[in-house]
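[retry 2/3] Methyltransferase small: previous attempt timed out, resubmitting with same input.
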Amino acid sequence: MNAFEAAGRTVVPTTDDLFLGGALAIRQPKNGYRAGTDAVLLAALMAPETLAAGPVLDVGAGVGVIGLCVAQRCPSARAVLLERDPCLAALARDNVHRNAVSDRVSVVETDIARATAALEGARIKSESFPVVLANPPYHDERRSTVAESPLKAVSHQMSEDRLEIWARFMCRMAAPGGRAAMIHKAEALSRILETFEGRFGSIGVLPIYAYAGEPAIRVIVDGIKGSRAPLYMRPGLVLHTPEQRFVPEIEAIFRHGAPLPPQYRG
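[retry 2/3] Methyltransferase small: success.
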């Protein structure tokens, strides 16, 4: 375990974790926000040629795992990481530096509800990202107990109306014809579809199962800005074998940085 001195001289206990079979070294809080499976899966949704088409925006980036996985998977990809918490943003900058991608990945510290000044300061324009990705907080703060760690509370709880703010911001930043994708708990699917309606079309829903025959635990919802094509369901993605090992396709994603197989991705 290490200690990280963040903005305001805050010292945070951290761990050093490896992603993509050791290709990425990520420092993250020991007791707060912990990036993992969801971030890696979302980063694997798009084909390499899609990621290379222009800058990728990681909204609510935390310590930067989604954007850094994108940069590692596609050497020509560029990414901008947006994070509102000063400590997590500082860790994201540190992770960008330690993975030697500072020439392709940048971090902007801002709250998406009040991001205009920060975006202008970073010379980032609306409607300029062909790909926008988001792994928002999963728990409704009205229904869950507040986390003991302030970082954990920030990264795992949000009010129900804030999901609308996330979808609105993703639409604002996506280029015309650009793709936006969000991973969330399966029970949030109806809320996500409500917030995507009127903003994105050709919406694809990818249900994710821990094991075959069990209820879905996550969904990835993605859509195209300005499209009027109807919603469609992708085949369900199963993560584990009955022996509690990753299925080969998932093992390839987590260990070798492979994209999702074509039937699961855009």
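[retry 2/3] Methyltransferase small: The domain at 2-264 is CATH 3.40.50.150 (Rossmann fold).
[retry 2/3] clearing retry counter.
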